[in-house]
Structures are given as C-alpha cells and as structure tokens.
Amino acid sequence: MPEGDTVYQAAKRLHGALAGKVLTRSDLRVPKYATADLTGRTVLGVTPRGKHLLTRIEGGLTLHSHLKMDGSWKVYAAGQRWSGGPAHQIRAILGTADRTAVGYRLPVLELLRTADEDRAVGHLGPDLLGPDWDPGKALENLLREPARPLGEALLDQRNLAGIGNVYKSELCFLLRATPWIPVGDLPAEHTARLPGLAKRLLEANRDRPARSTTGRREPNLFVYGRAPRPCLHCGTPIQVADQGDGSRERPTYWCPTCQWGPVPAPGPKTDRRSTRHRTTN
C-alpha cells in the first residue's frame, strides 16, 4: 500500500494536469457509475487526504479514489501511448484537451457530493502532509490504546494519516524501539517526539522521486527491505517478521541490537538470527 508521500505526489501530478481545465472525456468503469458523465465540467483540484485522493469537480462533486496495494493514476499527453497496464485494468479516465488521467486497478472509486467527503475520509486522524495536521491530537490518538503494539498503532489511519509499512519500520528504528512494544511502554521522551519525527520524514520525501530516511541515496532505508543485511549502525543482521492482527499481516523489519522491546518468537514467518532484545535504551 502506498505511503502518504506517494499519494501526495500522485495528487500533485493529477492537480497539475487537470485543475482548472474542462473535462472533454469521462469514463468511470465501475458498474455503479458507468453512466455518470462528467464531460463539460471543470476540475477544481485534486487533494490528498492521508492515502486517499479527492478530485473535486464543478457542480459539487468529488471523485474519491484509493490506490491500496496495486492502484495507480497515470497522466498522458495528447497522442501519448498509455502504458500503465492492459485496458481491462482501467477503472477511470478523465481527459482534457491536452492531458488524460487514467486510473489503473483502483480498488476504491466512488463519485460523491463534495459536501459528503467526510463519509469517505472523516474517520482519518490528522494528516501528516495536510493542513489539518495536529501533533497533539495524533499523540492523543496513539495513546488511546496503550497496550497496542507500536507498529500496529502507527498503521492505523484513524490515529494519524499517511504512514505505511515502510515508514512504520523506519520510525520504530529511529525511535530505537521494536514495532511490538506497547505504545504505553515507550519512554516519555520517545513518545513526545514521535509525531514530529513522522511528519519530518514524510515532508522530506514528499517531493523526492526516490524515498530516503537515511539522508543518503544508497542505502536509502535503515531497516525496511534490508534483511538479512547488516544494520547500518551496529552491523547486526536486520530481521524480518510479519506483524498484524492475523487478517492483515505485513513484513516488518528491525535491528535486534539497536531496538529494544519485545520481538516475535521464532517461527516460519520470522527470519531472525538472534532472539535477544535490549531492555534499556
């Protein structure tokens, strides 16, 4: 699933291509909206909200989409060959005189009244890259369930919107805590800096073509996707294990030396070369 910075970049591309222009082509390939015709209407703008995209259209309408794991929006110039995937994967086409935005494999696509956007995104917590960002509220949300593992709490978009699996692992590494530590067990100084650290990471990457949390081009990440390569700080092999509620488990990476707190027991879904964990920072 894309992170908030990826969705921000997608919104920026769509906004640049469509905002202020009249739609000359409209094709929503979802049965419920197959007869909807947006041609002749002006696109007012495209706004990201966490991991959601809101394309606002003249007449009080909003086209709401979510990329989830495989979705994407591609923008093509007039006459340019479409290369985002086979035609049967296209779910939406929004065309103007000089640009066409094509949505591929969109698992969520709905046309709603702009006044009803809260029905789609009202459940989200403060947006790390949005004008509604409120670090105090985000921290309050995270601490509402003190027994919940930190990694799961960070992924819950109701707490704060924009963190995906990559930033979850990277944030936990930078906090020197494992993703399985209960939120309430984090030292107060770590807890206090968490929202600000998350915001800085996403802001630093929202305009970059290649994400980096290390400040370097290579290696660009501290732990995510790096098992069993050595930790950049201590040289211990990075470990990976699934984390989730059983229905939505995701690969989670950590350094068993640099990060303190509980870790999963060795098993078929755990690639670990050390079972030790630190109890002090």
Please explain how this structure is put together.
- This is DNA-(apurinic or apyrimidinic site) lyase.
- It is an enzyme of class 4 (lyase).
- Keywords: DNA damage, DNA repair, DNA-binding, Glycosidase, Hydrolase, Lyase, Metal-binding, Multifunctional enzyme, Zinc, Zinc-finger.
- The protein has 281 residues and is an alpha+beta fold.
- The protein folds into 2 domains: 4-121, MutM-like, N-terminal (N-terminal domain of MutM-like DNA repair proteins, Alpha-Beta Barrel), CATH 3.20.190.10; 135-271, Helicase, Ruva Protein, domain 3 (Orthogonal Bundle), CATH 1.10.8.
- The protein has 6 helices and 11 strands.
- It has helices at residues 4-18, 118-121, 135-142, 150-155, 165-174, 188-205; strands spanning 25-28, 43-49, 52-57, 61-66, 72-77, 90-95, 99-104, 108-113, 239-243, 250-254, 270-271.
- Helix 3 (135-142) crosses helix 6 (188-205).
- The two termini are 31 Å apart.
- Mean pLDDT is 93; it is low at 272-281.
Describe what is shown at a glance.
This protein has helices spanning 4-18, 118-121, 135-142, 150-155, 165-174, 188-205, and strands spanning 25-28, 43-49, 52-57, 61-66, 72-77, 90-95, 99-104, 108-113, 239-243, 250-254, 270-271. With 281 residues, the protein is α+β, with helices and mostly antiparallel strands. The protein is elongated.
